[in-house]
Specification:
Layout (H helix, E strand, L loop, with lengths): L6 E6 L4 E6 H12 L6 H18 L16 E2 L10 H8 L3 H13 L4 E5 L2 E2 L4 E2 L36 E6 H8 L18 E6 L5 E6 L2 E4 H7 L13 E6 L8 E2 H9 L4 H8 L4 E4 L13 E6 L17 H18 L3 E4 L9 H11 L3 E8 L9 E5 L4 H18 L3 E6 L3 H5 L4 E8 L3 H7 L2 H18 L3
Parallel strand pairs: 1-3, 6-12, 14-15, 14-16, 16-19, 17-18
Antiparallel strand pairs: 1-2, 4-5, 4-13, 7-11, 8-9, 9-10, 17-19
Bound molecules: zinc ion.
Length: 475
Amino acid sequence: MSGNNIYIKVYRSEFDKIESIPIEEIVKMKVISNIDISFHIELLKVQAIVARTQVVRNARCFGGVGYESCNECDLCDIDNNIHIVDEEYLKKLWKENFEEYKDKLNRAMKETEGLIITINNKPIDAHYHNTCGGSTENSENVIGNEIVYLRRVLCEYCEDSPYWNNKKKFLLKDIEEKLNVKFPTAYYGLDTEIKKFIEDIERDENGRVTALKIAGKTFKGQDVMKLLQLNSTRFSISPEVISFNTGGKGHGLGICQYGANKMANTGCLYEDIINYYYTGVEIKKCNKPSIKKPLSGKIIVLDPAQGGESCNDAVGINGLREKEVVLEIAKKMYKELKECGADVFLTRSKDEYVSLGKRAKFGNDKRPDFFISLSLNSFPNPSIHGCEIYYYKRDKDSEGLGNSIMDSLVSGVNVVNRGVKNADFFLLKEIKNSSLQIFLDYITNPEQEKKLSNVNYIDKMSHFLVKGIVYYYRY
Ligand SMILES: [Zn+2]
């Protein structure tokens, strides 16, 4: 993509207006506000790719969520940490380094133009932080869910960071205030111990300290009084200040900036750094935004189950046949998926028998992003109905698509959700790419059979199946 001709509509909170800004300009401003430009140029490149990934992931024109309060704009400046600045501002900020920093930043931008970090062709949630302090964090420990590319990696590269080790002291009364708690009040008879600091306080019957252990060493009460010039041995101990010692700065997810800078200083390139801190990602040129063709570049194989004279398809009480319904839906999906820009293939386009082996081979030959098989279920008890979607165990992508399609069908045509589950059906096992087997509903339920014989319902169901796929692929 060429950054100069992609404009992002940014909501400028301060002025309550929308402004169109070239994406590369936005990326540059994000870099300026998120890293010290004196850092190594490879780190500036990393930061540019990270910033671009965030913009592409969030901007509405790329299929992101955009800004909820304003439908016409792609991003909100505040939510996306975009500080719009001009050259005058930068002159003041960079002072005598202005020319040098400007060149350096422009070079970092130019050499990474259009690049984003992806996993399965989707931009990642590109987190970074200042200093990890020894190792980065697993995502589930910070944001709750497990994200494959946000895994803990060891990092001693940041040990020169000023934030590697820090202390912050608090008065107890400030902690009481901030955390809304109350510490016990000390009085001279109280034998409050602070393990390994002050322990084993012994007193006589009058409350005077006769002995105590400080940092593991035993003292007489009298000696402590003299050494610390206390007024008497009738004393108690209470902390006034607590020091919190921290290693690192930031949430610890993804890139450790200080560590990355050290890596760059030892000769690592931006791609080395990105691949070190994000597990299993790819750096790619991002596609041009296309709302009209949200599935461009995607390959999908649709597999209407059954088919042929002697097939054993499910049949409704009024004679509706599974093989006909699924073929009809597959054809409608084919058309709509094409309109969305996908490359689509059907394992059969007429009433013919195609063996499972042939379907699997066809699917593997096309190397699709997804192989989607469409079936209808049957059951002796006619009251049973609802949709079931199956994926091959541990195939997270298929599970994700399955959930997206299920949600779309539930909200679009009101199907009963009977679960998105894993299974080891023949096709799921044999297809080397991600695959789903969708049992749209039970044809043996008379009410569903009636719906499935209605062309409007078939139209709608096909549309919401496609919508589930489009939604899954939103950036
Ligand atoms: Zn680090």
